[in-house]
Design a protein that fits this description.
This protein folds into two domains: 178 residues, 3-Layer(aba) Sandwich (Rossmann fold), CATH 3.40.50.300; 68 residues, no CATH class. It is 35% helix and 24% strand. The chain has nine helices and ten strands. A hairpin with a 4-residue loop joins strand 9 and strand 10. The radius of gyration is 19 Å and the shape is globular.
């Protein structure tokens, strides 16, 4: 840890004055935020505001133009390739498209990170694969090919693979994208269940308001005009009490989607 930096003990990710550019185009300008241990931290905002860009910087897939990103005590923006890979092994990531290998069975997909990053014997890996699949209600589907799974099953399979190495932090890029409302709600409840039962910190990029209200402990809202954070807090509080017109409009759009959804905010 840098000698001039102090932080609360429960901060597991710290983004400091992050500037992200693609060529001459600035996407994020001096963005700073903290993620606390055990929370579900959701990044929201309109199209093109930099949600996925921020997530990719948090996991070290992109290097900032300036600023720093800490995962625990490690400034991942200053690590060499080996150091970054070491930190990334403590992280689990589910990408929007799932990124599952179609040429492998479901069980082989889940086993892959265990085979690459551990010296465990094959029978132990097989046991862990079954345990992870049971956690996402896919027990017994080990021998299915990815093409034989439904959209919701693929999302849960990607989550099982992300959990294979027991990461301390899980990242989700638009987990509900492409799912029907019922399947999306089931995935939301699974995310909440894993967060509560395992205490896993979660960082989620989403634009789906029903999901945000169901899973989020805290949100930040990015704005493409200011290229920064324009709101932070409990999503229900922002919906009901924000005086910023763009924040109020964002959290109150499609209000009919929220009817009948019982989330952790009582919505």
């Amino acid at each position: 840890m840098s000698g001039d930096r102090t932080e609360p003990a429960d901060v597991v990710i710290r983004v400091e004055n992050l500037v992200a550019r693609y060529g001459d185009l600035t996407i994020l300008e001096n963005v700073s935020c903290d993620v606390h241990r055990g929370e579900v931290f959701v990044v929201v905002g309109g199209s093109g505001c930099g949600k996925t860009t921020l997530l990719r910087h948090m996991i070290g897939l992109l290097k900032p133009s300036s600023g720093r990103v800490f995962v625990g005590d490690e400034d991942i923006t200053s690590l060499d390739e080996d150091g970054l890979r070491r930190v990334q092994r403590s992280l689990g990531v589910t990408f929007q498209a799932g990124a599952l290998f179609g040429s492998l069975t479901l069980g082989e997909n889940i086993a892959l990170p265990l085979q690459e990053h551990s010296d465990l014997p094959a029978d132990t890996i097989d046991l862990l694969v079954r345990m992870k699949l049971d956690m996402v209600s896919l027990g017994g589907f080990e021998d299915f090919m990815i093409s034989e799974l439904s959209g919701g099953m693929k999302k849960r399979a990607a989550l099982a693979r992300a959990m294979a190495l027991d990461p301390s932090i899980l990242f989700f890029d638009e987990p509900s994208a492409g799912l029907d409302p019922i399947t999306s709600a089931e995935l939301d409840e699974l995310i909440v269940q894993i967060n509560k039962s395992l205490g896993t910190t979660m960082v989620v990029v989403s634009h789906e308001l029903p999901s945000v209200f169901t899973i989020a402990d805290r949100v930040i809202m990015l704005d493409p005009k200011s290229k920064g954070i324009i709101a932070e807090g409990d999503p229900a509080e922002l919906r009901d009490h924000s005086v910023d017109p763009s924040v109020h409009a964002f959290f109150n759009r499609h209000s009919e989607q929220r009817s009948g959804r019982d989330g952790r905010h009582g919505l």
